[in-house]
Write the structure tokens for this entry.
Amino acid sequence: MNETVKQTDIQKAILEQQQSEHRKKMILNGVLLVLLLVAPLVMYPVFLMKILCFALFAVAFNLLLGYTGLLSFGHAAFLATGGYTTGYLLSNVPGLSTELGILAGTLMATVLGFGFALLSIRRQGIYFAMVTLALAQLVFFFFVQSSFTGGEDGMQGIPRGELFGLIDLNDNLNLYYFILVVFLACYLLVQRTVGSPFGQVLNAIKQNEPRAISLGYNVNRYKILAFVISAALAGLAGSMKSVVFQLASLNDAHWHTSGEVILMTLVGGAGTLLGPVVGATFVVNVEYQLAQGPLRDWVDPILGGIFVLTVIAFRSGIVGEIQKFMRKNLS
Amino acid sequence: MTMIKKLLTSAVASALMVSGAQAEISDNMVKMGYLADMSGTYRDLAGPNGLKAMEMAIKDFGGSVKGAKIEVVSADDRNSPDVASSTVRRWVENDKVDMIGGMVASSVTIAATKILEENNKLGIVSGSAASSITNEHCTPNHIHYVYDTYALSIGTPTAIVQEGGKTWFILTADYAFGHAMEADVTRVVEANGGEVVGSIRHPFPTPDFSSFILQAQASGADVIALANAGADTTNAINTASEFGVTQGGQTLAALVLFLSDVHALGTDVAQGIQLTTGWYWDMNDETRAWSDRFMEATGARPTMVHAGIYSSTMQYLKAVEATNSDDSQTVRKYMMEHPINDMFAKNGRIREDGRMVHDMYLAEVKTPEESSGEWDLYNIVRTIPADEAFRPLSESKCKLVSM
């Protein structure tokens, strides 16, 4: 009798703790949401949209690196494919509404991601990274050589168009809220994915692949699916970016961009939901602020230094370290 | 009667609009933006020293126009059109920037000029090479000041063929930019009675040029043309020097090569190369005098881009002063109507497509024996008259050129 009472008490306590944690999270999310909603009134909307696009790109990348343990070094290919496809369609198909253009770009990136996944997933670790890099270089070469991309000049003057044929996206605020909605939807999607049974399997693969195989999971299939989702979201980020800036350029396809997204994810904290968002915000801001100031000759060395410092001293990134600190001192 | 009335009202209305636009300098301030690669590949070509050149011009002008203060903001574009695009947007939409100078990578320039067109501000492009900037990508809101690929890839071959270099071998970077230059060179060489005996395409970018240079050497052509740019060109020149191409009697013609590149390569390696340039610091007393001042401020000799930035800033400020306006169209119109005569250009003029046409020069890199110092690098071989140097308007695809 006594024991059962104790057990329900314990259960209650656990439940309460979970609830309070949940509440804390909800409050944090609410605050962030309000900040995002009022941000364009204080800050420059185009700059915020740039951060959102790169944040989505990093969130997509983190699904692979942080939750599946796959280091892809070719994610620029999806960003660029999304961007170029959307740009080409919006420039050349008259009357195409913007969301369809973005959807088409995302679809192209998804298909490409499936192709990449089929070829690269057979290898692990550094070999996987190298295969994705090689494939991304092929895509880069294709974009350099094709005439529709405008080569070095880039694809320029992409019309922003209208959302659903109704809302004028040339207005920066309209576009900002559209991008914000898409970004939040994707963020929630990744959150759900990570928390789902599917996400648990991905986590199992990350921690010990042979064990996941021995438990009877078809590991390759899970990896391919994770890769495709990641590629699709990266493509979506690229598509939106081409609408925001009204251009798509070779920089998007260059391996530097693949490196940059790794930097964003690691600095922010791989394997945390908010990490890539914080990382992208941080990197884009550092780049921008430094480019304006007296240190502008030193942007690359400084970013490199931050990267080295993160890898050596703060391996779980900004968000990861904060979480660790909170767990240690506040509970 | 009503017709005449209508005409009259519209005439009065448009006159009012014009005078409205000319009214005065907005915010009682002329604000200039300097956008360039400050940290990457093109740093030496324009970079921080370009900003110095712009500031020199403002200082020489007196720091203010008709009582309006002149201010400068600057940013690193990191050779990325994204960065350029967000920076320029912020400058013109929020920070009240009237004119933007510098601009190097073609993708950066085109992105920036599109935004300038949307917001009706002025851009003066000094660093970019692409001739498409005043061709299919021309806008009524920018001027391309110093040089372009047309001038470079036409000027050098014409001059060399006329000097007797009849057979050509072309080394081409395998992408649109290289292909376009290869086509230009082939056309010019053949039109002047020369012959292209062979060509080879190399991937972009290429670190090792040995096999390509060996083939070019073995072709026995009088001239080896490098239809590439940046690191590819300097790598090819380094390899050619190792294989003794110029010492073996062949001429090396670099289509896109700048003083800063030659300075980095040194006369040992670069000697004998022929190239086209828009300006050289050691041409006459005027250029030398300005370069000495530039050297004092920066510790380096100016490239043609630096000189172009100084000259164009000066012209811009003169136009603002004369028209008492910083409206882009008023200023651009004034600049088009008044020929440019300064240390950078003699009788330079700005065409309706935005191209500033002026004499270009064929230069030959000095041998180490001829060179008297680290910056004594070129012999000016001949002058290429303005009319021959740039794409004639009759071939233009620019929307502003009326046929």
